[in-house]
Amino acid sequence: MSKTRKLALLSILLSLALALHIFERNLPLPMAVPGIKLGLANIITFLTIIFFGFREAALVVFMRTFLGSMFGGGLLSFCFSLVGGLLSTIIMTILYKKFFKYFSIPAISISGAIFHNIGQITVASLIMENFNLFYYLPVLLISGIITGFFIGLIVKLLVKPLESFFQAIQTEKTLI
């Protein structure tokens, strides 16, 4: 695949991730516990891992969190999202690239959601110098299991249709 095509595809994935990130931030969820998110942008992160790899997925996560914090959220939001997002990306990449025969796409997504929450709680505890925040972790882990499962199902449904698209792009074939 040419560098130009790769850059164009990664730009599209970044745009989709940012749109989902902003959409989710503005989505009024009736959650009794603050901080619980659906993790819609993780659909794009996982697809980027599958079709490109870790380096590209980490770049998409970094740029999405940076731009997302510029559009609203601030420095703390950037720190929480970046650490959680990168930790999640590392875990999902390892599980997908090395252990995919043992783990399903939803299981890998659940692992990513869990580690995203662990990363965020760790950063919050360090910044606020309050390690009692880890008492909040079980609630986040339960929500991570639920949301991670559904994000994984969406990714699983998208992989097959997108495979032919990405194969055509990688072999430089035209799609029309």
Given helix and strand content, the structural type is mainly alpha
Which range does the strand content fall in?
under 5%
Distance between the termini: 18 Å
Number of helical regions: 6
Stretches where pLDDT is under 50 for at least 5 consecutive residues are none
Could you say which overall geometry the principal axes of the C-alpha atoms support? globular
Helix content: over 70%
Largest sheet: none
Please provide the count of β strands: 0
Radius of gyration: 16 Å
**What is the mean predicted local confidence, pLDDT?**
90
Succession of helices and strands: HHHHHH
Characterise this structure.
The chain is mainly alpha-helical and 176 residues long. The chain is 77% helix and 0% strand. It has helices at residues 3-26, 41-51, 54-70, 74-99, 105-128, 137-170. Helix 2 (41-51) packs antiparallel against helix 3 (54-70), helix 2 (41-51) crosses helix 6 and helix 3 (54-70) packs antiparallel against helix 4. It is globular. The protein starts with a helix and ends in a 6-residue tail after the last helix. The model has no long low-confidence stretch (mean pLDDT 90).
What is shown here, in short?
With 176 residues, the protein is mainly α. The protein is 77% helix and 0% strand.
Q: Which short descriptors sum up this protein?
A:
176 residues, globular, 6 helices, mainly alpha
